[in-house]
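User: Teach me something about this protein's shape.
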Amino acid sequence: MSKLAYLGPRGTFCEAALRLLAPEVEGVPCANVSAALEAARHGLTQGAVVPMENSVEGAITQTLDELAWGTPLLITGELLLPVEFSLLVRPGTELAQIKRVTTHPAAHTQCRGFVERELPGAVVIAAASTAAAAQEVAAPASPYDAAISPAIAGEYYGLVEIASNIGDRSDTVTRFIRVSPPGPLPEPTGADRTSLVAYLQNDHPGALLEMLNEFAVRGVNLTRIESRPTGDGIGHYFFHFDCEGHVSEARVGEAISGLRRLSSDIRFLGSFPRADAVAPQVKRGTTDADFAEAADWLGRVRAGRV
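Assistant: First, the predicted structure itself:
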C-alpha cells in the first residue's frame, strides 16, 4: 500500500485532510512539517500532506520555507478543509479549574477571543500540533489542564469536549497540499493553480514590480504572494507566488519564463487542480491561440514574409 507522511500525531486536521485527499493510502504521522516532507524526499513515503495556509492565520511559514530549500518536491493536489476547534480536558475537569492550556500557535491565534473571555487567567503553551496538545494533556502527570484541538483528537486520546466550536470565526478554512517527488504533472483541468518560488537576482528599486509585471502583462492573476527571508541578512528575501492556470498554458509558461530571466533562480513547485474549482477569466489576447498566432506572425516577419 502507498504511504503518505503527514503532520501528526494521529488526530490532527492534517490527518483529516489526508483521508479526504487520498483515502486509499496509509498515513504516516510525523512530528512536524519538516519531518513529513523529509520522509517524502528520502523515499520513506510516496509523498506528504502538509498545511499551506489558513484563512485567518495566513501562510504556514514552515511549509513555505521547507518547500523553498532542500531537495525539490512538487505539489500535486490541494484541499480546503473547514476548521473547528474544541477545548478538550481529562474527564472530571471543569472550566474554572483550567490554568494551563496547550495548543499549536496557529490554533491559539484563531481561538484568542474564547481564551480571553472564558479562560482569562489561563496560560497558553505552544505545542507541535493540535493533536500533540491533546496527547500531552492525556499523558499521566501532565502539566496541562486542557488542549485546543480537533474533537477527533479527544476520541484518540481519551479526552472529553468541554467546549465546542471555540474559534473566533465559524468560517475558518485551512488549505492543505499533497506533495510528491518530481514526476509527471497533473493534467490541466481548466481550473488550476501554479505555485513557484523566485529568488531576487539583486535588490533594486522596482525589483518586485518587475516580477509582478511578468504576470500582469500576460493576464495571469496571482492568488497569493509571500516574501520570506533568505537568511543572508536583513533585507534579503525570496518570494512565493501562486497564480491561476497551468504551466502548460502559454500565458502561464511565458510569465514564468519571463520571471526566470529576472531572477537568480526559480523553483517550480507544481501545477495542480484548484480545490475550489474556480476557472480563471482569460483576457483577450492571452489565450493559447493568441500566443500561437503571434508566434506564427513573428516567424513570418523574421523570414521576410511581411
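Now, about its shape. The two ends are 60 Å apart (CA to CA). The chain has ten helices and 15 strands. If you'd like, I can walk through any region in more detail.
User: That's plenty for now, thanks!
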